[in-house]
Design goal:
The complex is a heterodimer of chains A (263) and B (299). Chain A is of the alpha/beta class and 263 residues long. Chain A has 10 helices and 10 strands. In chain A, the strands form 2 sheets. In chain A, strands 6-7-8-3-9-10 form a 6-stranded mixed β-sheet, with helices on both faces. In chain A, helix 4 packs across helix 6. Classes of the chains: A alpha/beta (263), B mainly alpha (299). Chains A and B meet through helix 2, helix 3 and helix 6 of A and helix 7, helix 8 and helix 10 of B.
Chain lengths: 263, 299
C-alpha cells in the first residue's frame, strides 16, 4: 500500500524519501494519522484531498518546516536517502537545504531579482561573486524566467507579475541545488496562463529533481504527476500511479472524490 | 453621498475638536516663537550664561542636552532592541519569561518620570556609584557616588527603554511570516533569518521608534533633577562624572530660581524655542525615515 504500483509509473524506481508511521499533532489536534508513503526519486508525486485533509501538514513534515510552529509535533520516521531527518543530531537547516520548498503564496523577499536568487547561496557561505552570478543565471533559466528578467536583475522582485514571482521563488529554491522540491499549491493563486507555465516547468524539473506537489486541482494532478496520494481526514487512503488511480481507483472514497461527489 | 442631520452633527463636533487642538497648538507655538525668536542670536547659542543666569547664552545647556541624549541612546537603545528581538523572534509565545518581561515593560512605561529620578538617585548614584567608591577609594569624598551626566543618562535610558522595546517589537511583527518561512526553507538558520531578512525589513519602524523614544528622553526634566543636571554651570562637562546643564532643566531653573523672574522671561522663551527645535527636528527625522522605508517596501 505504501509503495505505489510501479509498473504503470514513469521515471526512476528508486525510493528518495520513505515515511513510516508518521503522525503530526497541532496541540491536541491529530492532523496526520499513521502515514506510510514512499516518494520515488526523480518523479512527481501529487498529494490530493479535500481542504483540511492534512496534505499540506504532511508536506511541511518532509522538510521540518513544522518545527517553526510551536504547537506542532511530528512522530514516526521520515527517511531521506535512508537517513531519518528527525533523528537526533540532524540539523533541520541541513535538511531544508536538501529539501526545498515553494509556497502557496509567492513570497519573494523585498530585494532585487538577483538578490532573491542569490540569498540561499550567500547564507550557505558562498562568497565567489562569479560563481553566484553563474548559479543565479542557471537557476533563473531552470525556472524558465531568465528571458523575462535578464534585463532587470537589479529591479525589485515585487515589481514582477504574480506568475513571475512564483517562478522566481522556484528559481530561488533551485539555486541551492536541492534534491527534493516540495510545492504547496504553487499555482493556486495564478491565472490559467501562468499556471500552465508552472506546470510545464514542473514536468521539466522532474528530470533532475524529486518533486512533491500539493494540489487542489485534480486536473493538475493528472497533468503533472507520476504518482498520486489521496489524503482524507489525515489518513492516506490510496497511493498509486496517477494514470491508474484516475481511471480505476481502488477505494470507494477515492472514486467519490475524483468524480467530484465530495471535497 | 448625502449627509444626514446626524452626519452634520458628528462632522461638526469632530471638526470643532480639531479646530480647538489646532488653535491651542498654534497659540502655544506662536507665543514661544514670538517671544523666543528675538532672543536667538549667535551669541545666545554659543556663549555661556552670565552670573545672573539671564544674560549671555545657553551653549552649555545645548551641549549638555546633546551629550546626555547621545549617552542615553548608546546605553539604552541596544538593550531595548535586543530585548525586543528576543521577545519577538526567540521566545516561544507561551514562554513564562517572555510574559514576565512584557508585563514589566508595560508597567515601566506607566511609571511617572519623577519616580525614575528617585530610582536613578537610589540605584545608580547611591548603590552603583557609592559601591564603586567604597571599593576603590578609602576617603569619604564621593567620586562616582554623586550626580553626574553618566548617571542622568543611564536613568533616562531606563526611562526610554519601554518605548524602544514596544515599538521595536511592533516593527518586527510587521515583517510577514511568509518571507521568514521562505528564508528558513532555503536553509537559513534562525539567526540568519533575523539578521538578513527580519531586521532589514523592520529597520524603518525600529529607527522611527528609537528616534521618538530618544526625543522624548531628550526633553525629560524630572528624572535628571536628582541625577546630574546643574542649576548653573558655565563650563562644559569633560568627564562622565561631571554635572551638566540641560535645556529643559535650565527652563525650570530660570522660571523658579532666577532673582528677577520678569527679566528672565526672554531668555526663558529663547531656551524653550531651542529645546523645541531640537526635539521637533528629531521627530521630523523619524517621519522622514518612516516615509522612506514605507516607499522602499512598496516598490
Amino acid at each position: 500500500m505504501n509503495v505505489p504500483d510501479k509498473k504503470n509509473g514513469k521515471g526512476s524506481l528508486d525510493v528518495k524519501m520513505e515515511t513510516r508511521g508518521v503522525n503530526v499533532f497541532y496541540a491536541d489536534n491529530h492532523a496526520i494519522k499513521d502515514v506510510d508513503l514512499d516518494i520515488l526519486d526523480r518523479s512527481v508525486t501529487a498529494l490530493i484531498g479535500p481542504s483540511g485533509c492534512g496534505k499540506s501538514t504532511y508536506l511541511r513534515a518532509l522538510n521540518r518546516m513544522n518545527d517553526t510552529i510551536y504547537s506542532a509535533r511530528v512522530e514516526g520516521r521520515i527517511l531521506l536517502d535512508g537517513e531519518d531527518i528527525y533523528g537526533s543530531g540532524v540539523d533541520p537547516v541541513e535538511v531544508r537545504r536538501r529539501v526545498g520548498m515553494v509556497f502557496q503564496k509567492s513570497n519573494p523577499f523585498p530585494k532585487s531579482v538577483f538578490d532573491n536568487v542569490a540569498f540561499g547561496l550567500q547564507i550557505g557561505g558562498e562568497k565567489d561573486k562569479d560563481l553566484i552570478a553563474e548559479r543565479v543565471e542557471e537557476s533563473l533559466k531552470g525556472a524558465a524566467l531568465w528571458d523575462e528578467v535578464k534585463d532587470r536583475l537589479q529591479a525589485s522582485a515585487l515589481g514582477l507579475s504574480g506568475g513571475q514571482q512564483q517562478r522566481l521563488c522556484i528559481a530561488r529554491c533551485l539555486a541551492v541545488w536541492p534534491e527534493v522540491i516540495l510545492m504547496d499549491e504553487p499555482a493556486s493563486a495564478l491565472d490559467p496562463i501562468a499556471t500552465a507555465k508552472i506546470e510545464e516547468l514542473i514536468r521539466e524539473l522532474r528530470e533532475q529533481y524529486t518533486i512533491v506537489i500539493v494540489t487542489h486541482s485534480m486536473q493538475q494532478a493528472a497533468r503533472v504527476s507520476d504518482y498520486t496520494a489521496f489524503f482524507y481526514m489525515g489518513e492516506l487512503i490510496e497511493y498509486g500511479a496517477t494514470d491508474g488511480m484516475f481511471t480505476r481507483p481502488a477505494r470507494k472514497r477515492t472514486e467519490e472524490y475524483i468524480s467530484g461527489r465530495f471535497g | 453621498m448625502r449627509y444626514t442631520k446626524k452626519d452634520w452633527l458628528l462632522g461638526g463636533l469632530t471638526g470643532l475638536a480639531l479646530v480647538v487642538i489646532l488653535l491651542l497648538l498654534s497659540v502655544l507655538l506662536g507665543q514661544i516663537a514670538w517671544y523666543g525668536a528675538p532672543v536667538i542670536s549667535v551669541e545666545f547659542l554659543t556663549e555661556s550664561p552670565g552670573a545672573d543666569m539671564v544674560s549671555g547664552g545657553i551653549w552649555p545647556a545645548i551641549y549638555g542636552t546633546v551629550f546626555m541624549t547621545l549617552l542615553m541612546t548608546l546605553a539604552g537603545v541596544p538593550i531595548g532592541i535586543a530585548t525586543a528581538i528576543f521577545l519577538s523572534e526567540y521566545a516561544s509565545p507561551r514562554s513564562r519569561l517572555a510574559k514576565l518581561v512584557r508585563i514589566a515593560v508595560n508597567n515601566l512605561a506607566g511609571v511617572p518620570s519623577i519616580v525614575f529620578g528617585l530610582f536613578g538617585l537610589g540605584f545608580f548614584i547611591i548603590f552603583v556609584g557609592g559601591g564603586i567608591d567604597s571599593l576603590l577609594y578609602d576617603d569619604t569624598t564621593p567620586v562616582w557616588g554623586r550626580p553626574s551626566i553618566l548617571w542622568a543618562s543611564l536613568t533616562l535610558a531606563v526611562l526610554t527603554l519601554p518605548v524602544v522595546i514596544v515599538t521595536t517589537e511592533e516593527a518586527l511583527r510587521t515583517v510577514p511570516r511568509e518571507i521568514r518561512d521562505a528564508s528558513l526553507a532555503l536553509g537559513a538558520t534562525r539567526f540568519q533569518t533575523v539578521y538578513k531578512i527580519v531586521l532589514p525589513n523592520a529597520k524603518g519602524g525600529i529607527l522611527t521608534g528609537v528616534i521618538l523614544a530618544v526625543s522624548r528622553g531628550a526633553g525629560e526634566v524630572a528624572p535628571i533633577i536628582f541625577c546630574g543636571a546643574a542649576n548653573f554651570l558655565p563650563y562644559l562637562p569633560t568627564d562622565l562624572r561631571d554635572m551638566f546643564m540641560h535645556l529643559g532643566y535650565h527652563v525650570y531653573a530660570l522660571a523658579t530660581q532666577s532673582p528677577n523672574v520678569d527679566a528672565a522671561r526672554p531668555t526663558l522663551f529663547g531656551t524653550v524655542l531651542v529645546l523645541l527645535v531640537l526635539t521637533f527636528s528629531l521627530n521630523l527625522l523619524a517621519v522622514i525615515i518612516r516615509a522612506r522605508s514605507r516607499a522602499a517596501l512598496r516598490t
